[in-house]
């Protein structure tokens, strides 16, 4: 008589994975052929709706910020576009936002360099203590509470209100993290001005409320997956900050929910995706 299969012990699998501090990159490097069960999503949770609704292709608005500080007419036009996009979508892309393409590329390269360095170098930043750490590396912040883990690992850095001192940041990507966060903070201040005016308020209204004081940087890394049909890199979610500025790499996969329809957001060179909390 065959022995009954042992009951699946999810907690033990999660702990064993977490204690390696190697994340999904460690699983990829080990050459595994089968995705561990802790990453499996039920088939009904792997809904991959197309971006085409009723035969009509839809895409999030793209707003060109060129001339926003130079011409009052251009400014009014941009404010109208921000208002409409925020009201109807909650998402839009911005072009000619002032951040050099070289900085965007260096930031993407810096993320890859951090996650692809030796494990011992990354382990120094491994923690699940977000309350006292400005810099935290791990795989899945909600590893022990989510129904299934995402095939992803993340470096979190609190760059403002209380920024880390330079030596607290990973050496391999330190300089570009500081420069990129400085540039994004400037863009964020501009976006808050535009949103304030789109609401019929004074340009500094949201800034005076403190909306521009904090800045958190999340750098995600998605290693190749041997069975991508069984899991997801990032599940559906709502960002919990006021404003998200997202830099995509060339691979894509980002979708946003619009009128109960998942819409693809293909990577656009030089563009940044803006997500307004709602």
TrEMBL record:
| Family in the record | Belongs to the iron/ascorbate-dependent oxidoreductase family.
The Fe2OG dioxygenase domain sits at 211-278
Protein name in UniProt: Fe2OG dioxygenase domain-containing protein
Keywords, comma-separated and alphabetical: Iron, Metal-binding, Oxidoreductase
The record, for InterPro entries, names: DIOX_N (IPR026992), IPNS-like_FE2OG_OXY (IPR044861), IPNS-like_sf (IPR027443), Oxoglu/Fe-dep_dioxygenase_dom (IPR005123)
Q: What is the lineage of its organism?
A: Eukaryota, Viridiplantae, Streptophyta, Embryophyta, Tracheophyta
- Lineage top rank: taxon: Eukaryota
